[in-house]
Every structure is written in C-alpha cells, then in structure tokens.
Design a protein that fits this description.
The structure holds 2 protein chains of 2 kinds. Chain A has 3 helices and no strands. By secondary structure, chain A is mainly α. Chain A is elongated. Chain B contains 40 helices and 4 strands. In chain B, β1 and β2 form a beta hairpin. Chain B is elongated. The chains are: A mainly alpha, B mainly alpha. The interface between A and B is large, with 100 and 123 residues.
Chain lengths: 122, 957
C-alpha cells in the first residue's frame, strides 16, 4: 500500500531535484522555472511539517475536535504569494538582462564566445 | 560628573574646530588648547585626593547585556597618564601653531589631534575594559588619520596604512583577550578584574587571554617583532610624532600592561613573554637606531628601545621594577617629546633631517643646540638629568632579577649592551647635529626659530633637568602613588638619588657610557659592518606578507565567485548537500512509526502527473512554451494536494497564483528567445542531474522522516483554541494571518510591494540605451492570430468583470470564517482585471483604470500599518484585532472586525503588486510591438465605431 506520506515526500524530492537541475542551466528562463519548482518543493515541505490529514480543515466549528495544524498553512500561504513576487522579479531581471545584453546566458555572455564553464558548446 | 566632562572635552573641542575653520590660527589654537587647560585644572583639583589613594569613579549602565558600562575612574596611574596626555598635548598644540606651514589645513589637524587626545584620555580613565577597548580602537583610527595627514604623499598613506594594519590587528587580538579576561573574572569592571588576580591566573584560559592581550599591547607599543610600523609612522608631521609616537599612543600598550598588572603579572609565563620581549626589543631597536641617518628614524627606534625597557621592567613582575617603569615613563615622555620637537626645529630651519648632511649647528642656533643637548644627555642616561636616575634604578632592578631561573650575568650583560647602544645613538644625535664640522651646503644659514617653537620643548627640558636635580621633591609622591595604584598594593620605598654610592648599577652605567662613546668613535666601521649584514627589512616582509594574503584571498574569491552563476549555484547546492550529509550522519536515517494515510488511486495518478511534469520540464527546456504548459500541470497537482490534505486556503491561493504566474511567464517569454540552442554538454548535464538527484533525495528522505513522526507539542494548539474567542473568526489560517501573526503578514506585503516596485524600476527605463534599441528592432517571432482582440473574448471578459469582482468580494468577506481572505481575494481581483488587459488591450484598459497601482500598494501597506497600530491606544499589543457582532434589519447578525481593515490592506497591496508587475511587462512588449498598421482599438470589430462612421467604412475600397 502506497502511503500519502510517501507520495508527498517523493514529490518534494523530485521537485527539488528538478529545481536544482534547472537552476544550474546556462540560460535564464530555465533558471526561473527551476526556482519556481524549488518554491513548490519548499512550500510543500513547510506544509508537510504540519503533518498530513484528510478531512480536517482548520476551520473551527463547535463539536469538532480534530483539526490539522493551521500554522504551517498560514506560513505557506504567504510563502506562495511571496514566491510569485520572487518569480516575477527574477523573470523581469532576466528579461531586462536579455534586452541589455542581447543574450539570455545567465552571466550575460554572448553565445559565440563560450565561457570556460560551458563545456560542450554546440 | 566632572569625569565625564574631562573625557568629553577634547571631543567637544574637535567638533568646534570646523566652526572656527575660517578664523585665524591663534583663535584656533586657543580653542584647541581649551580642553587641555580645563582638563589640567580638573586634574590639579583632584590631585591631593588621588595621591592620597582615593579613586574617584563614576558608573552608569550603557549596554548592560554585554557588561559594557560607562565607567570612569581616576587612580594615580590614570591621573599620571591623563596629565601626560593633556600636558604634553598642550605644548604640542602650541608648537604646531608655529610649525605647520600656512598651506596645511590647521583646523583639520587640530580636530584630529583633539580626537586623538580624547581617545587617549578615555584609555587612561576607563573603568571598564570594554569601554577601554572602544577608546583603544579610536586611538588607532585617529592615529591613522594623523599619520596620513599629508595624504597627498604616498609615504604618508603607506605609513598610515601599515600603522593601522598592525595596531588594528593587535586591537582585534586585544578584543579577544579582554573578553576572555572578563569571562574569567566574571566582570568587565576594571576594579573587579584587578581584585581577582589569583583567580585569573589559576584559570586554564589565562594563557590564551594573556597572549591575546599582549599581542594588543605589543603591537601598540611597537615591541619586537612588531616594531617596524613606528618608524614608518614618522611620515606624519613632526608634532604628531612627538605626541603620538613618543609620549602617548605608543605608551598605551605599556599603560595597559601596567593597568592590568595586578591581574596578569607575576606568573612565569608573564615573565617569559613580557620581560624577554622587552629585553629583545630594547637591544635590537637600539642597535638599529645607531645606524639610521634620518633624525626622526633615530628617535623612532630609540623610542621603540625605551618602550622595550619599560616593557621589560613591567615584565619582571616585582612592585619595585614596576615603580621604576612608572618613573622612567615620565622621564622618557619629557625628553623624547622634547627631542622630537628639537628634530622638527632642525628640519624646519635647515630643510633636511639627514644627520650626515648636518653638523656644527651649535654656533648657529645656540638655544636649539642647548635644548637638544640636554634632552639627548637625559636620553643617554647621563647625570644630572632625569634619564640618569631612572636608568640607574633600572640597572639596580636588573642586577637583582634572576632571568629565566638563573641569577647569571646574561640579563645584566644584555641590558648593558642596550644601554651602551642607547648612549651611542644619543651622543651621535647631539654630536652629529650640533658639533663636528659644519657642511657648507646650507643655502642660507639656519638660525634659532621664534619663541613659539622653542618654548614648548624648553619647558619639557626644564622638567627633565628639575627631575634630575630634585627627584625627591618633584616626583616621589606621584611615582609612589602611581606605583601603588599599578601594583594594587603599597609602593616600595622610592629613593632616586644622583649619588647612591658605588653600586653595581653605577658600574654598569660607567661601562655603558664607555662602550657607547667608543661605539660613536668607531661609528664608521660599525656602520659599514651593519650595512654589510643584509638584515631582513621588516617593512618589505610586511608588504610581502600583505601581498601574499591579498593574493590568497583573491584566489579564493575568484575560485568561488568568478562571476559565473552556474558555478556559484553548483557550489551552493553542493555545500548545502554536504552540510545535510554531515547532519544526517550524526542521526542515522530511519522512518518514524506514526501511522500513515493510505493513498487513493486518484492521488497516485496525480502524483504520476507531477512526476511526468517535472521530467518533461527538464527535458524540453529548448521548447519554452511547452515547458510552461508542463510546469502549470505541476501547479495544478500541488493545488489538488492542498485540497485533499485539508488546506482549502492554500489550494485557493495556489491555483490563483498559478494563473497569474503563467500569465507573467508568457508575457516575459514573448520577448525572450523561444527555442534557444542548449549551452551545456552531456557531461555537465549529468553532473547537474547528479547534484539534483542527491539533493532531491535528501530532501525527500527528510520530509518522509518528518511526516512519519508525531509532532512534538506544536504551538498551533494555542491558535486553534483562541481563534474564535480571541480573533473572532473560525478560519484559523486567516485569523493567524491577520491577527496572531499579523506582523509577519505585514512584512510580507511590504516585500511584495517592494518586488513590484523593483519590477517597475527595472522595466521603466528598458526603452532607453541598448535595451531600447533592441526593443525597437524587435520583430514578432511567432505567428500571430489575425485577430488582436477578438470581440467575443472582449465582450465575455467585460461581462465577467462584475461577476468576478463579486466573487472576489465574497471570498474576501467570508475569509475570516471560511476559506478565503485578503490574499486570495486580491488575486481574484487581479485576474479579473488582467482579463480586461488581455481581451481589450493595454491602452483601453489603462485608460479605464482609476487608481494607480503605486498608490494601491502604498495605501495597502498604510492601511495595514494603521490598523496594526490601532491596537496600541487600547493598551493591546501591536496588531491585536478587535471584533464585535451587530445586527441590521434584512442583513441579520454580522460581525465587524478590525482585522477586516488589515485584510483590505493586504488585498490592496496584492492587487497593486500583481497588476503593476504584469502591466509593466505587457507595456514593454506593447512598446516593442508597436506597428503603424495596427491601431489599439479594444475590439477588432467595434460595432459602436461602425455605427458612428458608416460612411467612412463604406469608403474603403
């Protein structure tokens, strides 16, 4: 039997792995996507700190005794909005850099003269 | 209270200097002399009390958490040092008035000098070692500025830098040492520390504290092997050399040794370190002094040598030796400051300081020659001057002190060599300047300066003569009291006499004078021998060491931070993984025992979709529109997970953020390359994938380990229990956001607002410069729909606007009790308005926008802040919310809360930020796409326009 915990944990792991891989790419747009993916992973992890629960939303009602932990949810809620702010800022930075330099390589280096770091230049 | 004034006066004087900058020099001198005069009067008033053993003190808490108090105290040692600082300072100020050339900025010089004076006074009067540290650093800084006073000369700048590097580095060590000392003693109060000497020396931390403190003292007092900075500091104007580098600052190290004597002295380690360093410095520096040709360099090395002597005496660790050190400190200050001023006069009158180019000046400048001769004789230790007395007493102590466990002749022999060299360079100074053959190279014959230049050194010289003639009357009380204060006990009998019989000390003295005279007589061959020795040049070593350090730092920085983001991020991730591995190694990984939830088939399907989405995004990077679609799948799956796992608020937020994010990325992608060639080769991709898999695996394991363990008493029980009763809402997440943790939320909306403003700032100027050229040259690189603004879309969007707004209001209002709230409502509003931009175009929508986005962000933050502050007048903590229930006909019972106002602020900021970011992005694209053929009509086919101008439409062929 596959547990919910395993699904969430592995999803966090896969998202992190993908995020790291994308953040290490040489062009700006994948880096933006990678950071967005990392924020999914981090938000999920923060959320998971409150442990998983089904059908126990933190909406107080008389007679109910079981609630999931509301605090991580509150933190994650603002984190989601902030992640949007961050993604927006970074993508705009990437765009402005591209407009200024004419290349979308992360260090603003033109494609023609590859840096030493970029082995295997096509 | 007068203690505070005493310490503050020089600083006040320094601040007054800029005000009198435009005035004449005499007025400036008077203002600068004020603090010293008043300070000396104050010291004179309290002198009887202090000499009788009283310690006036004052203490007020400053930073109690650190143990840092404003604590000032004057015992006899502090009194003596303060009097030296102020007295010699006064003479120096008078001397400078006539010394500095009219070109120099006199007011700036005096301001710096006063700053330094205040810092030194602070050291002398501090009753708290942390306070002392602050003043200690201030002296390093002000001395840096004074040495580099002639900042147009490379020599001055280099000397200043070296002095700062050495004394500043020693200051760092001193910080560590004094903090350790305070920790051992349990107090940073000087009085406490001094009373706990035995406890301190018994502590295992004593050696570390001692070595660190000594590093601070030795660098400051230019002890071997840190002696090299002092001669280079001679690039300073001569008054600075006379003041800082002979009489006061370099003595700060010796002063601190004396100050902490009861706490630190007496151990074998103390003797071995302090006495040996002092001895070596004394001999080595005297030898160097004999072979220098620059007058100031000779004096500088002789200063180093005499400081070594003082250090050695304090290192002996006996009260008698400490008393002699105090006596010699006074004598040295008198003759050395006089000598520096003397050298300054010679430099001033002849234009050179090279002793080889000078000679026979006695006939030309008799006053200067007399003063210089007396001072140099005192330095040589010739009777009947003050220097002779303290030297005799020093030799007496040396004779009685066993060195390194042996009562041998080693120590006396070494000291006699040092004393002989001292005699030799002193005699060389006075003989080389004032006697011997007069060179005929002077363009005009030098003559005695005006009284302003010779009176200050004359007073000092008079002092040294009087001390020599009447030592008992003049110095006994002061020296005994200061020695008692230094050692923390009663002073031993102090009986300086010109003649005290045929003692070993006198014999040593005679030998030293004989040797010294011989050395001067044979100076030429000695100099040749010295020059042939090829001794290591400390300055070069220092600079090489500095260059080496800088090279290492640069290499390290370049290796980590070479400007390549990829390398830096890879290092960052690798470091994070290494840290995680280190942490996990301590606690072996194991799953917990908390019961897990079974996963329904739908969840597994969603999970597979997410996995596929991640892999797809990583694989199809070159096709960017596709990767956008894939990443939005991930967002949807995450939202669904929130829905299933009891987090309705998060699900709502995530899904609406998802819409906005994808729109934003689409807009940006419009102008970015769509299918760029990959830059990385397979090897690099595999490496990055490996980093990713290891990092992801570790995080996944960590998450699993957390989720399978039961939480340890989370604080959220409080939130659940108080949400309804204290916050007036049943949606605990929302109440947490707007009440319990409203301050966090407030911070977050500020961050969001700043991000939006930064985007605005980044995109506004994008139309200028190379960026603007690229924008104007930009050609749409995607096939376009012929319909820019399809009518159906535009009409539907307009119809949806009120509906969507209604939903937004509904979500906002119910947020306090049911899923919803300001963040989500703000996002819904934004989406409704963004639809207008998409459907009807930028121009049309912007014209109809009533409130500027900047205003919205500002208003939002302001409303939130005012609401948060609103709780203060009612005596509640910041951001506490108020609520009550009301009844209205028709509506029924409803609730009003102040948190609602806060949530309005949140919603406003969110709308403003989202709209500003996306609007600016689309505006840039819109500027780029501007083509003449296309008008900005909100609809491609506008029925209203057709009706208004049917004739025009028919004219079209």
């Amino acid at each position: 039997m596959i547990s919910m915990e395993f699904l969430i944990a592995s999803a966090i792991g896969v998202l992190t792995a993908g995020g790291i891989y994308l953040a290490l790419r040489a062009r700006t747009f994948p880096v933006v996507l990678g950071l967005a993916m990392l924020s999914y992973a981090i938000n999920l992890f923060l959320f998971a700190i409150g442990r998983l629960a089904v059908g126990q939303p933190p909406i107080y009602a008389k007679g109910l005794t079981d609630y999931t932990d509301p605090l991580p949810q509150a933190l994650v809620l603002t984190a989601i909005v902030i992640s949007f702010g961050m993604t927006a800022l970074i993508v705009v930075l990437a765009l402005r850099t591209f407009l200024e330099t004419g290349t979308d390589q992360v260090d603003g280096k033109p494609d023609e003269s590859p840096a030493e770091d970029q082995e295997g230049q096509p | 209270m007068y203690l505070v004034w005493l310490t503050l006066l020089p600083f006040i004087g320094a601040m007054l200097m800029p005000l009198v900058r435009a005035q004449g020099r005499s007025l400036q001198t008077l203002v600068a002399a004020g603090p010293a005069v008043i300070g000396l009067v104050m010291l004179g008033t309290i002198a009887p009390k202090v000499m009788a053993g009283e310690v006036p003190a004052l203490r007020a808490a400053w930073v109690p958490a650190l143990g840092l108090d404003v604590s000032l105290r004057v015992d006899a040692l502090g009194w003596l040092f303060a009097a030296l600082i102020l007295g010699i300072g006064l003479l120096i100020i008078a001397y400078t008035r006539f010394y500095l050339s009219p070109k120099d900025d006199f007011a700036r010089f005096l301001a710096l000098l006063l700053l330094f004076q205040g810092a030194m006074l602070g050291i002398a009067l501090s009753g708290n070692v942390l306070l002392l540290l602050i003043f200690w650093e201030l002296t390093s800084l002000s001395s840096f500025l004074l040495i580099g006073f002639k900042n147009d000369k490379a020599e001055g700048r280099q000397g200043a830098r070296m002095a700062l590097a050495v004394t500043g580095g020693g200051g760092l060590a001193l910080i560590g040492g004094l903090v350790l000392l305070g920790q051992i003693a349990g107090s940073y109060e000087l009085a406490d520390i001094l009373a706990r000497g035995a406890m301190i020396q018994a502590s295992p931390l004593y050696p570390a504290a001692l070595v660190l403190i000594l590093l601070g003292c030795f660098t400051k007092s230019a002890q071997f092997p840190f002696h090299f900075w002092l001669p280079h500091a001679m690039a300073a104007p001569t008054p600075v050399s006379a003041y800082l580098h002979s009489a006061t600052m370099v003595k700060a190290g010796v002063f601190l040794l004396a100050r902490l004597w009861p706490a630190l002295a007496g151990s074998e380690l103390w003797f071995a370190l302090v006495a040996t360093t002092g001895l070596v410095t004394m001999v080595v520096a005297a030898a160097i002094a004999l072979h220098r040709h620059d007058l100031k360099a000779i004096l500088a090395y002789s200063t180093v040598s005499h400081l070594g002597l003082l250090t050695m005496l304090l290192g002996f660790g006996t009260p008698a030796a400490a008393q002699v050190a105090i006596f010699h400190l006074i004598n040295h200050a008198l003759f050395k400051a006089a000598l520096f001023m003397n050298a300054g006069i010679v430099d001033h009158e002849t234009g050179t300081r090279d002793i080889r180019l000078l000679g026979g000046l006695a006939g030309l400048m008799p006053i200067t020659a007399t003063l210089g001769t007396v001072a140099a004789a005192s330095m040589a230790g010739l009777p009947p001057f003050g220097g002779f007395l303290s030297k005799e007493l020093m030799l007496e102590e040396v004779w009685h002190t066993p060195f390194l466990g042996a009562q041998g002749l080693l120590l006396p022999a070494a000291v006699v060599i040092g004393a002989s060299l001292s005699v030799a360079y002193s005699l060389r100074y006075l003989y080389g300047l004032y006697f011997g053959t007069r060179p005929d190279s002077f363009s005009q014959a030098p003559h005695d300066p005006g009284i302003g230049l010779w009176l200050p050194p004359a007073l000092l010289v008079a002092g040294t003569v009087l001390v020599g003639l009447f030592p008992q009357t003049l110095t006994k009380g002061l020296v005994s009291a200061a020695a008692a204060a230094t050692t923390g006990g009663t002073a031993p009998l102090f009986k300086p006499m010109l003649w005290h019989g045929l003692t070993p000390a006198l014999a040593m003295s005679v030998i030293a004078v004989a040797f010294g005279t011989m050395a001067l007589w044979q100076h030429r061959p000695l100099q040749k021998l010295w020059d042939s020795l090829a001794l290591p040049d400390a300055k070069m070593l220092f600079e090489r060491g500095l260059a080496g350090t800088i090279a290492i730092a640069r290499a390290l920085t370049d290796a980590v931070h070479n400007g390549a983001l990829q390398r830096q991020l890879a290092l960052l991730f690798a470091a994070a993984i290494a840290l995680g591995a280190w942490g996990m190694a301590a606690v072996p990984f194991a799953a917990g025992t908390r019961p897990t939830l079974p996963a329904p088939p739908l969840a597994i399907i969603a999970w597979l979709m997410l996995l596929a989405g991640v892999i797809a995004v990583c694989m199809v990077q070159a096709q960017r529109f596709l990767s956008l679609i894939y990443i939005s799948i991930i967002g949807v799956v995450v939202s669904l997970a929130f829905v299933y796992l009891s987090a309705p608020d998060l699900a709502l937020t995530q899904i609406s953020v998802e819409v906005v994010t994808v729109l934003l990325l689409l807009l940006a992608l419009n102008l970015l390359p769509k299918q760029p060639p990959a830059l990385s080769g397979t090897g690099r991709r595999l490496r990055d994938a490996a980093i990713g898999v290891v990092g992801g695996g570790a995080i996944g394991f960590a998450a699993y380990a957390v989720m399978t363990r039961a939480p340890l008493d989370p604080i959220s029980a409080y939130h659940l229990a108080n949400s309804k009763s204290g916050g007036g809402g049943t949606n605990v997440v929302n109440v947490t956001l707007v009440d319990f943790r409203a301050f966090d939320t407030f911070g977050e909306i500020i961050v969001l607002g700043i991000a939006a403003l930064a985007i605005f700032a980044l995109l506004q100027p994008a139309s200028r410069g190379p960026s603007g050229q690229r924008l104007r040259a930009w050609l749409p690189d995607m096939p376009r729909s012929p319909e820019y603004h399809p009518m159906m879309f535009a009409v539907a969007a307009r119809l949806l606007l009120p509906l969507a707004s209604m939903i937004g209001i509904y979500i906002f209002l119910r947020g306090h009790n049911l899923p919803g709230g300001g963040f989500i409502a703000g996002l819904v509003f934004s989406i409704a308005m963004l639809m207008q931009y998409m459907a009807s175009g930028y121009e049309w929508s912007t014209q109809r926008r009533r409130i500027d986005e900047h205003l919205m962000i500002g208003l939002g933050v302001l409303i939130a802040a005012v609401t948060g502050l609103g709780s203060l007048p009612f005596g509640a903590p910041l951001f506490t919310s108020w609520f009550d229930y009301f009844t209205l006909p028709l509506v029924g019972e409803f609730e009003l809360t102040s948190a609602m106002a806060f949530d309005i602020g949140v919603a406003l900021t969110v709308v403003g930020a989202v709209m500003l970011a996306l609007k600016e992005l689309s505006h840039v694209a819109q500027r780029a796409e501007k083509d003449e053929a296309h008008d900005d009509a909100p609809m491609d086919i506008d029925p209203a326009k057709l009706r208004a101008a049917p004739a025009a439409a028919e004219d079209v062929p």
